[in-house]
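Q: For a teaching session next week I want to show students how multiple molecules come together into a single three-dimensional assembly. I've collected the sequence lines for a complex. Could you give me the predicted structure tokens for the whole thing so I can convert them for display?
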Amino acid sequence: MIESNIIYNDKKDCQIINFENINFKLVSGLSIQHLKIAFKTFGELNADKTNAILICHALTGDQYVTGKNPITNKDGWWSRMVGPNKPIDTNIFFVISSNVLGGCAGSTGPKERNPKTNKPYGGNFPSITIKDMVKAQTYLIDSLKIKKLFSVIGGSMGAMQALQWSIDYPERIETIIHIAGALKHSTQNIAFNEVGRQAIMNDPLWLNGNYHLENKVPERGLSVARMIGHITYLSEDAMHRKFGRKLQSRDIISFGFDADFQIESYLRYQGRSFVERFDANSYLYLTRAMDYFDHSDSYQKSIEFSYKPNNHIRYLIISFTSDWLFPTNENKTIVETLNYLSKQVSFIEIETDKGHDSFLLDEPELDFVTKGFLENNKVLDK
Amino acid sequence: MNKRKSIRKDWKLIESLISQNARLLDIGCGEGELIQLLKKNLNANTHGIELNAELAQKAIAKGLSVIHGDAEKDLKQYSNQSFDYVILSQTLQAMMKPRDILAELLRIGGKAIVSFPNFGHWKIRLQLLLLGKMPVTEGLPFAWYDTPNIHFFTLKDFQNLCKEMNIIIEKSIGLTSQGKQFIIKNNIISSNLFTHEAIFLLSYQNFEPIKIKTANKIFAKNSAIVS
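A: Of course. Below is the structure for the complete assembly, covering every listed component.
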């Protein structure tokens, strides 16, 4: 096992594991000298270490899956899903949640110090992929001395990680729950990401990614990127239902470019508040990692011809009817491939108008299926 | 519900047709009660497909491998002969293209177990004859305008279709409306009259693979040489 040390970070209210001088090799060919992963755990690991669940976060998520997030002072991003007696029940399961490689909540990423220069990596951070993120997670799991995860669960970019786990380390997982993901990042998704990145890189304060050195933040670019992203996470129906054409704190239109409409004001608010908690470079690197994700040609072969056992894995694939970012048909391609290969797969499409973000919102069917799938497969396991 | 009761009646029968540790697919598995039973009693490796989202969710929440999907569209994703048994219980009459489904069952499964209500039952014949209205019975409890059963057929119709498709009927069991079991014999008129519900175990005619000798070598896709 690779040597590491774990320290508790008071300010961040999480644990940080350090792997020093390991030259963590990336898919790009480059490597990272020290690897650092910020993580949190919930519940108790049982004696035979068979109840561990890894939750992978989406693009702008973090290790604060439940409980208080000390950065935003709000509840964790999946508080309604994870906790005692909740769908992912921490009375039964030991939940691990880590900040992805390239993120900005304490794991190695562009915001962190480059040991070679003693300054933040900034724009010099190497390009990363979903495969690299997952590999980094295995280092953490190894250090926790867990051989096999009972489940890997994630939505969106988290679903990509879960899928990558099942491809690269099938022997180390029992089940996966893949929510609103795909075998590949679609052309349209790459296009949206590119607009977001252009907004950031065209902000005069971005400074080729080295804004940290000048104590600047490309706030405008990042907030525009967030506004675009946010539109793609919703659906037309949900937006209409929530905002319609309602005006924001005025009775008549201004004939100007203030935020006349509620939707404008809402997006501006989303953009502004995002800047306070997220790093612009991380946004660039992580969206890029998503863009590079593509198993569309290789998925079937990678399972069929894997020398690692994968027949034992029980897959649960979930999609949402109004999700146009990772639509049902993209999720279903995974199901079809798995069925073609005679794997143990379950699939459900949940009817909702809340769009891609449904997985983060109140969807009782998602809760019901997740809870039953996990707990009954745990029983069948024994 | 009447339908429920009669389905349960045929479960025991279906179980008796399946071997231990079999790999099977239940089409229209509902909440997965049947596959749960087969998993428990036969240690079967079970899979299900269910059109109704709520039922599919219930099945998945039991820890069963179940796909929310439409058999008429989604069977094509399974590869040839990937199951030992494919079960189609009380559903064939509700399919758009029963013949295609039947062919699909035996493409993906070594054996197919098909059960259906017999439209040739004497009560049904009598109703049509005497009342001149579409029959409504215990096993077919719906009025004509809201029935999910869009293709009515009799025992004899089914036997004829199997013959036409070169499908072997390995076993055929009838249930009377009283739930009495009997072996359906071919060409006996009384079978068709008294079978309320029929359960068939089907397989394909076994064809010997034809070997063609040739001097030419065939170059397959990856230019591996197959002679």
